[in-house]
């Protein structure tokens, strides 16, 4: 069995829209060899940009439903920023491992996308988190 066929234990319930063998292989190779966040102890969704309205809403929901995951994210980001500021990286044995990846925002982002589609198909009303905040 190839390493990309292994689903991280923490992410067993995560379903991807495209999950063929080639896509899984590309996800694994990208995560392990192209993405540098793991050298700072980050998980993949830690890099999601907060000003995006969908990400803000997903983080708000994460904080309401699973505040410990939200706090862990903030701690990882704080440590990563401190390391980057000092031009350092974690020792290789402390890098985030593929087996530890959780894709913790995916359920919330999927839920938000489903709500947006449902609203577009029914009433066409734009959800509040999509409106520009002043």
UniProtKB/TrEMBL annotation:
Xref: InterPro entries: QCR7, QCR7_sf
Main location: mitochondrion
UniProt GO cellular component terms: mitochondrial inner membrane; respiratory chain complex III
PANTHER family: CYTOCHROME B-C1 COMPLEX SUBUNIT 7, UBIQUINOL-CYTOCHROME C REDUCTASE COMPLEX 14 KD PROTEIN
Family assignment from sequence similarity: Belongs to the UQCRB/QCR7 family.
Alphabetized UniProt keyword annotations: Electron transport, Membrane, Mitochondrion, Mitochondrion inner membrane, Respiratory chain, Transport
GO BP terms in the entry: mitochondrial electron transport, ubiquinol to cytochrome c
SUPFAM superfamilies according to UniProt: 14 kDa protein of cytochrome bc1 complex (Ubiquinol-cytochrome c reductase)
Its membrane topology: Peripheral membrane protein
Record organism: Steinernema hermaphroditum
Signal sequence annotation: none
Name used for this protein in its record: Cytochrome b-c1 complex subunit 7
Subunit structure: Component of the ubiquinol-cytochrome c oxidoreductase (cytochrome b-c1 complex, complex III, CIII), a multisubunit enzyme composed of 3 respiratory subunits cytochrome b, cytochrome c1 and Rieske protein, 2 core protein subunits, and additional low-molecular weight protein subunits. The complex exists as an obligatory dimer and forms supercomplexes (SCs) in the inner mitochondrial membrane with cytochrome c oxidase (complex IV, CIV).
Localisation: Mitochondrion inner membrane
